[in-house]
Amino acid sequence: MNIKLPPHFDSLENALASLFGDSITITGKQRVSGGDINRAYALTLSNDKRIFMKANDRENAAFFTAEAAGLSAIAGTGTIGTPAILCTGTDDSDIGGFSFLLLEFIESAGRRSDYWEELGHNLAAMHDAPTEDSAFGFFQDNFVGACPQINTKCDSWISFFRDYRLAPQFKAADSYFSSRDRTLNTRLMDHLDEFLVEPEKPSLVHGDLWNGNVMCGPDGKAMLIDPACYIGHAEVDLAMTELFGGFPHSFYAAYNEARPLQPGYSTRRNLYNLYQLLNHLNLFGPGYLGSVQSIVEKYVG
């Protein structure tokens, strides 16, 4: 797995000078919609080039260094498109300062007729790409949304998912649970190995693969954005695609043609999505509590 981290600059001005030349300035700045965590802008430069900037408070610079590492990991597989990473940085020119990530600006074209089939094949290829070792985790911690995501390496996938995915989320959400909820949550954690399986091979996963994190590139093919990457079980990505509306049937058929799922995936899917729903509970509040309780109840109630 080839991960090449981008340069990091101490100001936006220095970043632009290094990337494009000393005379380059910003001539236009347009707010771009989308995303709950960061501010996003299309920047027009004095050489008429457009670039994409994500910004946040200065103390949240780790959001962007982690995102850059994930994009680099995906790009390093050579299997699926991602925006080119220009740099990360911090800037103190505003009151309080800000952190930023600069990416190429993607001019989306119309989707190819085989857009979803191509995505299914390419995601399968990404999941089959070699990883640097057999351990689950990542070389650094990162984020899923705004929540920290622990990526301590572990030889067992089931142990990794229990200790570094579900356990921190259950702990953070504890105030939402009744005493019965806590009993069931503990029972699930104690019996997780009865429901999950070790993968046939470790895979690089996107980690937050819903429809909003897939976009159409200039060649009409799908590109992946906003990753929460780690080495894990490929099923977590497939499960996430089914959580909020799902992808078309043609995507799943193409994926399964290229990389057949392990038997019993459908019985494990909700457990993988439990992690995402717990994360949403912790980020956005009790509207997700019922979904969390329903999944736990299904397995150990």
Question: In brief, what are we looking at here?
Answer:
The protein is an alpha+beta fold. It has helices spanning 12-20, 61-76, 115-128, 157-172, 179-190, 235-241, 249-258, 265-284, 289-300; strands at residues 8-9, 26-31, 39-45, 50-57, 85-91, 98-104, 142-144, 147-149, 203-205, 214-216, 222-224, 230-232. The strands form four sheets. It has a six-stranded mixed β-sheet with strand order 1-5-6-4-3-2. A two-stranded antiparallel sheet has the order 7-8.
- Strand runs, count: 12
Structural class: alpha+beta
Kindly report how far apart the N and C termini lie: 41 Å
What's the helix-strand series?
EHEEEHEEHEEHHEEEEHHHH
**Spatial order of the strands in the main sheet?**
1-5-6-4-3-2
Query: Taking Cα atoms only, what radius of gyration do you get, to the nearest Å?
Result: 20 Å
Q: Portion of residues in helices? A: 25-40%
Averaging pLDDT over every residue, what do you get?
95
* Low-pLDDT segments, ≥5 res: none
Give the helix tally: 9
